[in-house]
Amino acid sequence: MMDRHLKNILVVSFGFLLLFTAFGGLQSLQSSLNADEGLGVASLSIIYGALIISSMFVPPILIKKIGCKWTIVASMCCYITYSLGNFYPSWYTLIPTSVILGFGGAPLWAAKCTYLTVSGNRYAEKVGKAGKDIVNQYFGLFFLMFQSSGVWGNLISSLIFGQTPDAGYNTSFTNYTHCGANDCPYIEVANVNSSSSKQPTKSLIYTLLGIYTGSGVLAVLLISVFLDNINLNKTEDKEDIADEPVWLKILETLRHLKDKRQCLLIPLTMWSGFEQGFLSGDYTKSYVTCSLGIHFVGYVMICFAATNAVCSLLFGKLSQYTGRIFLFCFAAVTNFATIVALLLWEPHPNQLAMFFIYPALWGMADAIWQTQTNSLYGILFDDHKEAGFANYRLWESMGFVIAYGYSTFLCVSVKLYILIVVLFLGMVLYGCVEYGEHKKTSGKLVKQKSADSINKLTVM
Q: I want to staple 51 with a disulfide (CB 3.0 to 4.6 A). Which of 316, 368, 377, 397 is the partner?
């Protein structure tokens, strides 16, 4: 019989898989479907801006008021409104639904991380295993399913839009000198590959949006019916919690910044937003679309998502043997080598395999960043999980906002150098956190040995 904790993790994972199959597919299509006056890109910027504000105030109080399960359900409903807004995209429909989605994003992820961490620790206590090992495995299983949403979301849109009459692309574009790291906003290159593609018909767009909306509704129903609610205040005095002033709950996320470890982890957390923003926004445009055409973007992102999904499960299990420090260093080296290669590489259609190798390497590294950073927050801030994970979403979203903010102003080569700086700074400060935790653990061991020695002398 399946353990109740594992069943709940599978339910959460499948729910997120369904929800982000829809949102992930919509996110990658915004700049193409809603290109007029930059509406699509503006909606994405507003989503992450609202998510930052939401991260500071909403998650702790919402999770404590209605619990993890119903926070996840309510937040998923916010995502569905964005799918509905895309049926009639305008500044009056898409922008308000972007704000709603952004405010639902932070509590959704904070509740999910809290649920996985609490479930992992309780199961570990039940079977007598190390809590961090079970939590790592749960996050690995979750991200295996979650990251595969990128495969299904892109595959669905590719299959549906592939039915567009006369859907072809002009392959006469031969000037690739300004693709890749040399792509700059002020350089006008008549890339007919990206400009000559025919827009899908309204009926196909509505079919796609209908599938995405239905996927989101299924996610809500799955969580509502099959997910068990967990009592976060199992060992706490509920009267004290009820008497805690509301404004203290709201400011819990900001108060969490008093923890030095949280401040040191900010650059590494922002790195997650920077690196994901670069791949989805800059690599697809400046390398793939510029050289191969926009019709290859979906296949490249499927490669990234598939690699990410498999590696999420692999590294979730591997972490108990290697430790998180080794995995963080491995991811950093992989990203650094890939960034240097992208700076030197001059993309050309004849090098087709290379266009898939880089996102595969990026997906392998991102699997470590996602699973291990989430797990790290759960372990370091076990007493303040809601505020800790809210800070995680806040600073990751800040990375997204900054990456999208300078995307239209800087050359790709400059963006790659920025990635190197953020990665280096994040790893150095992360090392300081690990050093501090090592000293703390060593100090406890010394005190324990001293206490044991005193007890032995007393007995003698």
A: 397
